[in-house]
């Protein structure tokens, strides 16, 4: 009996004993569960962000490669010959009488693109202001192809500016007139059926022309002149 009592006590002790451990483990089991529930959306977000970043970088690299491969090259424009057969400034007012014919070549250096001109405007300027302009016929410029455009500014026009007469007199004495030719283009590139946006490159050519009637300058002649052309971008 006496031995039973301690056993009973031992049992009760053992009964109290297990009561404590179960209280400790449950929090241990519950905590990881809680942690998993807290971490899941965060890791999902992390993975989504990583994938998003990778996709962005991949698209960026593809676009860069396409841009490098398909980047259009600038048009090459040269004035091959130009004849100034009349260039007179009226003695009494600022009326300019002119007859200028121009032969220029347009080269499309692109291997991949055909060019479709939507507007070709050619302006003639003297001492700053424009004294005439032309709208040239539109055409298609093939890949790696060169086209010759021949056009003529002819007529009379009032020119503005205080310095026109002094510039005119000086240049006539020197035997060379300096006329600027500017072109304003609107062009679309086309590859197969894909058509680009409309580009608007400006063209600028500085022409050095023998003064009409001056045999010394005429003998030296007009030199082939390369024009500055804006890039297609
Ligand atoms: C242009 O000027 C030259 C010399 O000054 C003159 O001989 C010629 O008649 C003029 N021509 C015109 C169209 O004014
Ligand atoms: C300019 O002068 C010329 C004569 O040299 C004349 O025929 C012409 O009508 C004048 N033009 C103007 C706008 O005054
Ligand atoms: C203009 O110059 C061209 C040569 O470049 C000539 O054939 C033409 O007859 C000239 N026109 C006038 C009105 O002088
Ligand atoms: C224009 O210039 C090119 C190159 O010099 C030449 O082959 C062509 O015959 C010229 N055309 C005209 C109409 O002057
Ligand atoms: C300029 O004149 C020369 C000689 O007459 C001729 O060969 C050339 O084709 C002319 N150029 C233009 C653009 O009229
Ligand atoms: C270039 O243009 C010329 C004249 O328009 C044409 O005869 C030729 O076939 C073209 N070449 C190419 C490769 O398009
Ligand atoms: C003709 O041009 C030359 C330069 O090419 C110049 O030295 C000469 O003065 C000019 N002659 C005339 C009559 O203007």
Q: Which helices and strands occur, and which strands form pairs?
A:
Elements: H1 4-23, H2 25-70, E1 76-89, E2 95-108, E3 114-126, E4 130-135, E5 140-141, E6 145-158, H3 164-174, E7 176-191, E8 194-199, E9 202-210, H4 215-220, E10 225-226, E11 228-229
Bound molecules: 2-acetamido-2-deoxy-beta-D-glucopyranose (NAG) (7 copies).
Strand content is 35-45%
Number of strands: 11
Q: Which ligands are bound?
A: 2-acetamido-2-deoxy-beta-D-glucopyranose
Write down the overall geometry. Answer: elongated
Supply the CATH class of the domain at 79-229: Mainly Beta
What are the segments in which pLDDT stays under 50 over at least 5 consecutive residues? Answer: 1-15
Query: What does the largest sheet look like?
Result: 7 strands, antiparallel
Helix count, DSSP H or I runs of 4 or more residues: 4
User: Which structural class do the helices and strands define?
Assistant: alpha+beta
N- to C-terminal separation?
Answer: 106 Å
Q: What is the annotated CATH architecture of the domain at 79-229?
A: Sandwich
* N-to-C order of helices and strands: HHEEEEEEHEEEHEE
Helix proportion: 25-40%
Compute the CA-based radius of gyration: 41 Å
Mean pLDDT: 86
The CATH topology of the domain at 79-229 turns out to be: Immunoglobulin-like
